[in-house]
Prior knowledge:
Layout: E1 3-10, E2 14-24, E3 26-31, E4 34-35, E5 51-58, E6 66-75, E7 83-92, E8 97-101, E9 107-109, E10 113-117, E11 121-125, E12 144-145, E13 155-158, E14 164-170, E15 174-179, E16 182-199, E17 206-212, E18 214-215, E19 221-222, E20 232-236, E21 243-245, E22 252-260, E23 271-278, E24 284-288, H1 291-305, H2 325-338, H3 342-355, H4 377-380, H5 382-394, H6 397-416, E25 418-419, E26 422-423, H7 439-460, H8 464-485, E27 486-487, E28 492-493, H9 498-506, H10 512-529, H11 538-550, H12 554-561, H13 569-574, H14 603-612, E29 614-616, E30 625-628, E31 638-645, E32 648-656, E33 660-667, E34 672-678, E35 686-689, E36 692-696, E37 699-700, E38 707-712, E39 716-721, E40 724-731
Parallel strand pairs: 5-13, 11-20, 30-34
Antiparallel strand pairs: 1-6, 1-9, 2-5, 2-7, 3-4, 3-6, 7-8, 9-12, 10-11, 14-23, 15-16, 16-21, 16-22, 16-23, 17-20, 17-22, 18-19, 24-31, 25-26, 27-28, 29-30, 31-32, 32-33, 33-40, 34-39, 35-36, 35-40, 36-37, 38-39
Amino acid sequence: KNQLRKEFELGKRVTRARAYVCGLGYSELRLNGRKVGRNVLDPAWTTYDKRALYVTYDATGYLQPGRNAVALMLGQGWFKDIALLVHLKIELEGGETFEVVSDASWKGQDGPIVMSSVYNGETYDARLETPGWDRPGYDDGRWVAAEVVAGPKGVLSAQMMPAIQVVDTIVPLKMTCPKPGVHVYDMGQNFSGWIQLRVRGQPGTAVKLRFAELIYDNGMINRENLRGARAEDVYILKGDGEEIWEPRFTYHGFRYVELSGYPGVPAVNAVKGRVVHTAVEPTGSFACSKPVLNSLQRIIIWGQKTNLHSIPTDCCQRDERMGWMGDAQGTAEEAIYNFDMSAFYANFLRDIRDVQDEKGTITDTVPHIWGSRPADPAWGTAYPLIAWYVYQYYGDRRVLEEHYDGVKKYVEFLRTRAENGLVKFSYYGDWVAVDRTPGDVVSSFYYYYDVKVLAEMAKVLGKEADAKIYGELAGAIKLAFHREYYDPKTRSYANGTQTANALPLFLDMVPEAERGGVWGSLFDNIVYKNNSHLTTGIIGTKYIMELLTNSGTSDLAYDIATQTTYPSWGYMIENGATTLWELWELREGPSMNSHNHPMFGSVGSWLYKALAGINLAAGSVGFEKIRIAPQMVRDLHHAAGSTRTVRGEVSSSWSRDGQSVNLDVIIPVGSEAEVIIPKFNLENIVITEGDQIAWDVRGYQAGMQGIQSVEKAPTGFLIKIGSGRHSFRLRGD
């Protein structure tokens, strides 16, 4: 039964009421005829045999003295069945308490939702509605008693992260009629959610909505890449004036909507797009003078947020929508710069811990539906890396305390699989690369990275013995990696791909004597062999842009980021992308080719770190110490970025012309920063802060409030400052 109800009577005014709902599947809570709260697709998906989440609703304003009715609609969701646990705790005037708990005294019946499925859509027959079913006084004499069933084995846990909600409404850009009776709407944006339908017609008229990311040349929707997902909603009219409907227990990933069976000719406003995802709060912004990079930021944002559905999903349209861990770890830093991900990742880390077994293994997807156990090391690394990112960016030591044992157990599992000091098993490696890198190289890199992170965690938590053990193990892996994969003839690692050389360079795994040669091989591959294009998959892409910047070649990273020919982000944009693609290639057939796949969005953190210049200082956590080092490269004339941290807003905005640089920064209270301003080839430089001189030919002018020091460096100036708003101008000739 997908509708449940219970009536009860209150003799006094309600002063406080809370409703606790644990739905296995999805549920919608209603009190006295009103939906409670804004949440949809509630509660979040978990490994139910380990942990089931309950949602707490404030029900105070929904109850009244006298008769009350609590009612719920239920949908399939991700659980194998539909089940529910409800507990209302009510405080009455005078201190009296009253409780309502789900049991066999509740009644249920099938409602107008004839079918609901995450992948396939929802069918709603409005003729089956029973007005008043969720209000007191309704005659439920023909309803049957609810069946008491055993719940899953997992513990009940509060849903502490932001819920999935309808966060926006968008209108179509245009409507076409590619054949009689079929109307296709272009929403102008690929997104996750559903359509709100407006319609008038005769009872029993079935209006069908089908969803797609792509469109054929003849104007019909192209659904070849949806694979087994039917992605179809059907609304059957009751024939009572204008009817407004939207589904409850499904969602789609789409840009185009096909409407058929509509009585008459629909207007453009017959459909509206409802944007649905986990309602994480936006915290970041980035913009600059290069239009392609502004478009890149936009498609990163849309791709990331529309793939947050209680877990970080790989895509939102086809028969998948899984928590693939490689995708999750690759985009985590980008997500943290753009959104408040603290509670979201705290929950996801618990999801990962829930799937870990006694041997320490974890799985490629979390919750585990697809993929393997043990996870590909490039996917399993999501556990240590996301925990470490949460600590670094939010200063949340509790996350390390909560997951240290789990991360250690995972590293010890990897250790059991080591061959000559390296972990070589691999399923995906540098996924969807143009030039393939041997998977064992990627796995061994992450074995080193995981051990290194575990050693750092141990230091933070005061576990000195573990810090020593894993620090020494990391050193041994580093030596083994170089011994196994370095080729002195080619001055490269493994087969010399961009990824093969970038990974060890990024983590400083290359001996000093060979670093110049490896760097030269990587540079030649990018610039001369591939005309400043990447050939990396999602793993190499995550690290190569930051590596180039940290190695003093931000101009090359900028050249890569602004390309518009294949393979590049600009190529996606030039070909109409409004979210990131799964592949560098443009494919529109039945093969693996999601057009809303955030995994190549790792470059988003580079926009903030490099072009806006907002970085954690080395060794700092929670933005206590900040490094502002904007890369003013090529034809980029201005850039601005800000991100709201646990300490407050951090902002960097700069512009330049031939003889001056302007840089405005905001440093939150309690933080301090070092600011790097390049001097280009200017002479006779004067640096002012506000209307006061901080540096001129005499050197640093001490005594300015908020400025601790100014030091001249080979390529610019390093200024140490405290919190506040600072406006610097460097002038020269």
